[in-house]
């Protein structure tokens, strides 16, 4: 009996083999479960990251008249953009400005061109109301997905004495930025009105003569008296930090084709932004930049903005500046890096008259730098373009507009473009818009009484602002 029991007992080696097989099977099952769970975990983790990446952008809204747009407006837009991910800008209608402030110097379509060109602006709303109403605020929140409404620390008071942003503040959707010191549209208009008043008192000129002499610098008596310096009463204190904030901070590549344009760029206006032929970027944004001395065009391109003669190359991502002929429809490649030369105050005064420029060199430089189509500027560029300058900056093309205040430069004994002309790299571009700094000045002079009245009213509120102002942090 005992021997039979021992015969049917399992052999130790067999038990070990079976146990090993079972262990391997269990291990494989566990490994499969782990790998499957790991895939699911990794997938969930990836989805979580994607959700974070696709987080709703913070959209901020800022509105304004943006009349005679200047670097102060641009700095406000820069600060507003820093408070969110996307900046939507409302441009107040002409009718609303007239009702609340007086006649604008630049009409809505020109102001839209200027706002569209600012590098920190993502979308633009035309005909915005001067005051934030319940209906418009609801539209901003529901249709434009706005999270916050932005304004400067200077008060914006309606004719009835109420705060234009009271509703936004009450809704808890209001944020404030620091006002840019030393400049305002009122101040700039005042500089021209001051010069106009000086002329009227001393010379008793009629409006036609006043326009002609103020715009072109033909008044010997005025220039000899040196009154032109009185118009440049800017309180702007430039800092290196502000220039860095406005700069792109990028230089041209080794193989970049650099296009150079120069000018005064005084009272940076729609004629500077949209004159001559269309410039465009192959990155889906088109552009144009010009001075009355230049006439180049920069047109921002997206679904919220109008498209002007846009030639878009979908096959290459490389940025290119193209010259589009209005008549032949031909495209001529000019370059991919726009370098802008800005003449200093002394040069502008010598060429345009003692009353010019209206804005000083630093003010003009910031206005140009704020334009998204400008890659770099030369602050205080020479009047004459030398071979050394062309070599130093590796300039491929030098351009000038057909409509300009100095369009008779080729008849001058010392042609400032003689060197690039001799090198075969100089081009004159057609200028479709006839808006120059002179155009803006004439608007002020011809209607100076209305602007004087407007400035007196606005000047009182600005005076109170400076008297009551306290320190506000911000940059």
From TrEMBL:
<feature type="compositionally biased region" description="Basic and acidic residues">
    <location>
        <begin position="457"/>
        <end position="475"/>
    </location>
</feature>
<comment type="pathway">
    <text>Lipid metabolism.</text>
</comment>
<protein>
    <recommendedName>
        <fullName>ethanolamine-phosphate cytidylyltransferase</fullName>
        <ecNumber>2.7.7.14</ecNumber>
    </recommendedName>
</protein>
<keyword id="KW-0594">Phospholipid biosynthesis</keyword>
<dbReference type="InterPro" id="IPR004821">
    <property type="entry name" value="Cyt_trans-like"/>
</dbReference>
<dbReference type="Pfam" id="PF01467">
    <property type="entry name" value="CTP_transf_like"/>
</dbReference>
<dbReference type="GO" id="GO:0006646">
    <property type="term" value="P:phosphatidylethanolamine biosynthetic process"/>
</dbReference>
<keyword id="KW-0443">Lipid metabolism</keyword>
<dbReference type="GO" id="GO:0005737">
    <property type="term" value="C:cytoplasm"/>
</dbReference>
<dbReference type="InterPro" id="IPR044608">
    <property type="entry name" value="Ect1/PCYT2"/>
</dbReference>
<feature type="region of interest" description="Disordered">
    <location>
        <begin position="455"/>
        <end position="475"/>
    </location>
</feature>
<keyword id="KW-1208">Phospholipid metabolism</keyword>
<keyword id="KW-0444">Lipid biosynthesis</keyword>
<dbReference type="InterPro" id="IPR041723">
    <property type="entry name" value="CCT"/>
</dbReference>
<comment type="similarity">
    <text>Belongs to the cytidylyltransferase family.</text>
</comment>
<feature type="domain" description="Cytidyltransferase-like">
    <location>
        <begin position="61"/>
        <end position="190"/>
    </location>
</feature>
<dbReference type="InterPro" id="IPR014729">
    <property type="entry name" value="Rossmann-like_a/b/a_fold"/>
</dbReference>
<keyword id="KW-0808">Transferase</keyword>
<feature type="domain" description="Cytidyltransferase-like">
    <location>
        <begin position="333"/>
        <end position="443"/>
    </location>
</feature>
<keyword id="KW-0548">Nucleotidyltransferase</keyword>
<comment type="pathway">
    <text>Phospholipid metabolism; phosphatidylethanolamine biosynthesis; phosphatidylethanolamine from ethanolamine: step 2/3.</text>
</comment>
<dbReference type="GO" id="GO:0004306">
    <property type="term" value="F:ethanolamine-phosphate cytidylyltransferase activity"/>
</dbReference>
